[in-house]
């Protein structure tokens, strides 16, 4: 059980990261001329997605 504790903790932090990314996306959508910010968000989403894959592969 303690073995999965880290997965739960990391998963919670990834959920927080996803929420923050979503908020940023909403703000950026108001400013259509922000390709650099869009790229940053895509990179952040990719990192979160990869982290989830790592967690799931360690089950």
Automatic annotation (TrEMBL):
<protein>
    <submittedName>
        <fullName>Uncharacterized protein</fullName>
    </submittedName>
</protein>
